[in-house]
Amino acid sequence: MQAKKHPIFITNSLTGKKELFKPLVDDYVGMYVCGPTVYSDVHLGNVRTFLTFDVISRYFRYLGYKVRYVRNITDVGHLENDADEGEDKIAKKARLQQLEPMEIVQKYTVGFHEVLNQFNILSPSIEPTASGHIVEQINLTKTLLEKGFAYEVNGSVYFDVKKYNGLHDYGILSKRNIEDLMDSGRALDSQDEKREKIDFALWKKASPSHIMRWPSLWGDGFPGWHLECTAMSTKYLGETFDIHGGGMDLKFPHHECEIAQATALTGKPPVNYWIHSNMLTVDGQKMSKSLGNSFLPHELFTGTHKLLDKGYSPMTVRFFMLQSNYSSTLDFSNEALQAAEKGFKRISSALAVIKKLKYETASSLNHELDSDLNRLSSDCLTNMSDDFNTAKTLAVLFEMSSRINDFKSGIKRVSEVTRDTFENFKASYVGFMEEVLGLTDEVENNNKLLVGTINVLIALRKRAREDKNFPLSDKIRDDLKALGVQLMDGKDGEMNYSID
Ligand code: AMP
Ligand code: ZN
């Protein structure tokens, strides 16, 4: 079911206003989201940000848009403390673990994908790596030098923020004032190569011990973190594209610098709508690896984290995160997860019911119920179109689940509404749950898979016994037993089973 061209309003962090979304090209959305720096396991905070953009891209697709969703992998150039000094985060991990940097990249990229799969976060359309776009980054640096927006010192190239600000507006996104930025923080010391401390590296010279290095016009070096995203976003989405997203903490300096570089290159703003997703917090503090308050997804599923009483399923956690709008902070707690578990059970049980429910020929029409169901279907669209408000959309799905339970218990009958109303209601509930919010009925799915697999094995065992292949028949029984599945031979050759 698709509701084509339902108007969408987005809070644009560039203007701070809620704006009607107008794509650059009809029916097409180009979206870039800053991906992870793959030097450690992703924690739940990271998951929240990627979940936000998963739901946004799902919703555009649901409405019939074609979406090109580009989410990069940062595998080089992100230095410690997001600064221009210090060690590359990946190179440092490689040094500590005595591995190749690309072994670190491989390990954590695979882990990142596994985690996102567990949360039913879909793959982007393109997932480019920074190290795969060195040529593009060298070319952009060259152009910025030619245009006079950059300068070279000792094999490194820096962006000249003061020069840029004379022509454009540095601070346009983060609303920071360049004078304040120049005054604050530490002063330039004699070793600093930058003209001003707010200048940032486009290209850094590699010291002799630096492993991740590429030849360039300025000697061996590596790209600056901010330039990577400009190179990859403009390559795949064009000089100006629709949406750029990321966590709130990337607004400054990362996204501010992206705007400056791209505007200096083309004279045009690179992005029409900036969307920043807010932080997942623990006791009000940003969840972050360096603060030591981060949760790894597997600690949550198994309940092994010290702050948890028990484990929670990925869908419960997905539901928990969608219960608040992406622009608000979300505090993580045991109590909130317990409540989410109950809530998710309720709306996912209703999903299983409505999927099986069939329309019956109309009896006498209950006008009130008919218009109520239509209102609920359209409220899902209105709420999701209002800045992707998943919290309000879930509130509507809860209301809908009450109506579904009324049908189930027989308090109301589907024949009291028109066929169109019923089909629209059913398609809305299933579509918003599964396609838009990505909340699948995991109990039903897991059970289906398990029951189906056990039945296949029971059939094979039966065949083995008919063929007098008793060693195979016993092996199937014993292997299942080791997994906690007890087969019981009934009369007439029937087989039953129980699960521990
Ligand atoms: P990183 O791997 O640190 O580059 O972060 C990957 C993404 O996760 C970025 O978009 C960050 O803004 C985001 N992120 C990091 N910590 C949190 C958090 N506590 N809550 C939400 N998003 C976060
Ligand atoms: Zn980025």
Task: Report what the structure shows.
The chain starts with 8 loop residues before the first strand and ends with a strand. A four-stranded parallel β-sheet has the order 4-3-9-10, sandwiched between helices. The protein has a four-stranded antiparallel β-sheet with strand order 5-6-7-8. It has a three-stranded mixed β-sheet with strand order 12-11-13, covered by helices on one side. Helices cover 47% and strands 14% of the residues. The chain is globular and about 80 Å long. Helix 11 (334-356) crosses helix 13. With 500 residues, it is an alpha/beta fold. The longest helix is centred in the C-terminal third of the chain and has 25 residues, at 442-466. Strand 11 (280-282) and strand 12 (285-286) form a beta hairpin. It contains 16 helices and 15 strands. The chain folds into three domains: 9-277, Rossmann fold (3-Layer(aba) Sandwich), CATH 3.40.50; 281-436, Isoleucyl-tRNA Synthetase, Domain 1 (Orthogonal Bundle); 445-499. Adenosine monophosphate binds at residues 34, 36-37, 45-46, 48-49, 246-247, 249-250, 279-280, 286-288.
